[in-house]
Amino acid sequence: MNDNQDIKTKTFFHPGFQGWTYLVVTCSLLFTSCAQYYYAPNSNNIPLLSEKEAKINAQYSAGLISNGFECQSAFAISRHFGGMMNTMIGGSNDDDYGLSSGKTQTKFIEIGAGYFTPIQATSLVFETYGGIGTGGVNNIYTGEGKSKVRFTKIFVQPTFGIKVKGFEFGVSTRLNWVKQKVASVSGSKTNDYFAVMDEISKSPKSFHIEPSLVMRFGGEKFLIQLQYTGFSNLSTLDFEALRETGYFSIGFSIPIKYKQPKA
Length: 263
Known about the structure:
Blueprint: H1 3-12, H2 15-28, E1 53-62, E2 67-76, E3 81-93, E4 102-118, E5 124-141, E6 146-164, E7 167-186, H3 193-202, E8 205-218, E9 223-230, E10 232-233, E11 246-257
Antiparallel strand pairs: 1-2, 1-11, 2-3, 3-4, 4-5, 5-6, 6-7, 7-8, 8-9, 8-10, 9-11
């Protein structure tokens, strides 16, 4: 990174500025970014399934240094077991600000399966999912430099929620084991991002906690969805500021009722 990028990174993560930025994102969800990064979480898929139900969610997610579009799906396999698949595509683009200091693109996909159940005869729901995902982050720096970082993650995600007609609310905590790999890097070795690549290569494995809140409201066949998913790295690594800290998301959820085949 050059000096201008260092200044931007420090500014984005200054406590006072961060609080102001979160307020802006919450109100508008139109925040775009202007810094390179090397890992970004996707939003937790919190389906709060019922028996004989599937859900499709689509949403726009905005963070401090990146934004993207996500598609999530979940489906009941049996009375208490379900599956899910989630995808994300996004990135940052400094050209939006006329800074011409680089672009970042990320793509990600994950699959999972787990257990869900109502809590006794109440509107409360407990579910837990586990799965695996893979993706990558491509950075184009000022000039001719480029880098590609791939990552694989294994996750477990317990959730508590409430589900009534026209309203759903869930609280989830996703625990990740992540392994990153530098797939390629080009440009002058005097550039600071080569030090970032070296650090990732020396410490490719990390543990993350990604808490999330989701709220849905609407009708029987269509729900507006608002969500926040945070990120905290539980491992001790340098260049921590070059990871997205979380996303605010807005989108919709479509519940689908279906009949399961007889055993």
